[in-house]
From TrEMBL:
Signal peptide: none annotated. It holds the Pfam family LBP_BPI_CETP_C. Monomer. Homodimer; disulfide-linked. The cytotoxic action of BPI is limited to many species of Gram-negative bacteria; this specificity may be explained by a strong affinity of the very basic N-terminal half for the negatively charged lipopolysaccharides that are unique to the Gram-negative bacterial outer envelope. Residues 6-188 form the Lipid-binding serum glycoprotein C-terminal domain. Its main location: secreted. Gene3D superfamilies: Bactericidal permeability-increasing protein, domain 2. One of its GO terms (cellular component) is extracellular space. The N-terminal region may be exposed to the interior of the granule, whereas the C-terminal portion may be embedded in the membrane. During phagocytosis and degranulation, proteases may be released and activated and cleave BPI at the junction of the N- and C-terminal portions of the molecule, providing controlled release of the N-terminal antibacterial fragment when bacteria are ingested. The N- and C-terminal barrels adopt an identical fold despite having only 13% of conserved residues. The chain crosses the membrane at residues 12-34. One of its GO terms (biological process) is lipopolysaccharide-mediated signaling pathway. One of its GO terms (molecular function) is lipopolysaccharide binding. This is Bactericidal permeability-increasing protein. It comes from Fregetta grallaria.
């Protein structure tokens, strides 16, 4: 148990325990709320790898040969409940996700391409600026991708490493900034 400070003047106290944080994580995970599907038209044009078989042909020429220049989808989901721990300065979390890629055929059928598991450690720090409550999210210790199942034959280990590096880059370039934009400062009542 932690003793909360005695208020001598008006202040905002926010106390979050690991039990509350992990209960929320369990609830979101169990309800299936920790899933996101990304289609080729959702990626920024400046992203170095578009979700099309033409772009993925760098990693698997067979994919491009079987399905020339077809759109792809990426299904992101939590493999298991995130684990959260509370510290006085931040909320730390271990995330266990997977990214499954599909080729979208002209008849809207989705053909599985590969499944990549990605584990990451993150830190969330609350901030108060003037009368605004917000926060920032950062990766701590990076992200560790691991190709669990390549459904298309002919994906050499060297190409998997390139794909892992690109996914890490995408997480740093787009995932963390997006999380921070979701944590934009809100007025304190």
């Amino acid at each position: 148990p932690t003793a909360l400070p005695t208020a001598h003047e008006p202040m905002l106290l926010l106390a979050v325990t690991e039990f509350v944080a992990n209960s929320a994580a369990f609830t979101y995970f169990t309800a299936g709320a920790l899933r996101r599907n990304i289609s080729s038209d959702m990626l920024p044009r400046r992203f170095p790898l578009q979700l099309r078989t033409k772009s993925m042909g760098l990693f698997s020429p067979e994919l491009q040969q079987r399905y020339p220049d077809q759109p792809m989808e990426l299904h992101l989901s939590a493999r298991r409940q995130p684990l959260l721990s509370c510290r006085p300065d931040a909320l730390h979390g271990a995330l266990f996700g997977s990214a499954e890629a599909f080729v979208v055929l002209p008849n809207a059928t989705r053909v599985p391409a590969f499944l990549l598991n990605i584990d990451a450690n993150v830190t969330g720090k609350p901030t108060i600026t003037r009368n605004r409550l917000g926060g920032t999210v950062s990766l701590t210790g990076g992200a560790e991708p691991c190709l669990r199942r390549a459904r298309l034959r002919g994906l050499p280990v060297s190409q998997v490493k390139r794909l892992e590096t690109l996914l890490k880059f995408g997480l740093w370039l787009f995932g963390v900034p997006r999380a921070n934009s979701e944590c934009c400062p809100h007025p304190v009542p």
